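so ive been stuck on this for like two days lol. basically i have the seq below and the ligand is NAP, smiles is in there too. i just want the complex predicted, nothing fancy, no docking runs or whatever. if the output looks off dont worry ill sanity check it later, just need somthing to start from for the group meeting slides
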Amino acid sequence: MGSIKTVAVLGANGNVGSSTIKALLEEGFQVTGLVRKSSTATVPEGAKRVEVDLSDASLLEAFKNQDAVVSTISSITPGGALSLQKSFIDAAIAANVQIFIPSEFGIDTADPSASRYVPFIEDKIEIADYLRRNQSKISWAAFITGSVFDWGLNIPGFGGWNIADRSVTVFDGGDIPYEATTLRQVGKAIAKGLKAPELIKNKYVYVNSFTVNQNQVLKAIESAVGEKFTVSKGAVEDLWQSGATQVKEGDPFGVLGMIAGAIYGKGNLANYSATKGLWNEKLGLPHEDLAEVLHKYLAQK
Ligand SMILES: NC(=O)c1ccc[n+]([C@@H]2O[C@H](COP(=O)([O-])OP(=O)(O)OC[C@H]3O[C@@H](n4cnc5c(N)ncnc54)[C@H](OP(=O)(O)O)[C@@H]3O)[C@@H](O)[C@H]2O)c1
């Protein structure tokens, strides 16, 4: 594979998409942010904004002259958008794109049992299989990032946290370790990875900002805000089950409880620093500190 200079990002205005574009620009890539024709979305300054209608012809046109395509397409969307990635991959192959990064950025989907814990992971695993089957035509790399830390804190109640109310539910005693990665670090990992495409080629790439548990995060948040939180106790199994029941009853947002349950250890797929090791050093990722990240995060609120 040659060096990567041009990168197209699908889902350019999304949580992961916009931080990825910023990181790619910082690393000197020429970046195109792709948005659907129906979308009013803007893309971060410095990237070119291109509208696509997601038809094969429109994708082929958009992918021409791109060395890499990064998909950050939404997983929590009615009807499911993740499976659309098969046509993105086909178009990328037709346009001679060198490497495709699928929309992953969560728990360890290299373990096929992952789909038992979060329903949309079935689509992520299928897409990874499709890429493996086509890896003679296009390279790929799947970035596993555990819990996207600031994304989670932005959603009141997610994973038990409610910062505005100064309250938290601590699950199973709060000592279960998990990987947490800031949106900035997710973007950095992709950008640093594309700087070293031979290193990441056809691999699962495991990164984080820090390995933490809920008690450590609570202590750090309390110290950052200078106030004690009201703490309730919960069980990971109940958190996950109530999400699964909501999903069964037709509420797609029940998946949030299932995701949080998986982060807090259901299936043991979010503590991969212990099982798979981290790529942070190999990629040259910046060190991130929990207290510093929280200070910055809370200062912006
Ligand atoms: N582990 C974690 O804690 C965590 C947290 C967040 C995200 N993630 C993962 O990161 C990935 C990206 O998530 P995100 O939160 O960044 O996504 P997002 O912000 O919800 O959405 C990204 C983009 O997807 C496009 N999109 C939405 N619905 C679509 C549809 N039906 N068809 C086609 N495109 C559609 C939109 O693009 P336009 O409207 O601009 O075209 C949107 O800007 C997902 O795989 C998700 O599972 C993981």
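The mean pLDDT is 96. The two ends are 43 Å apart (CA to CA).
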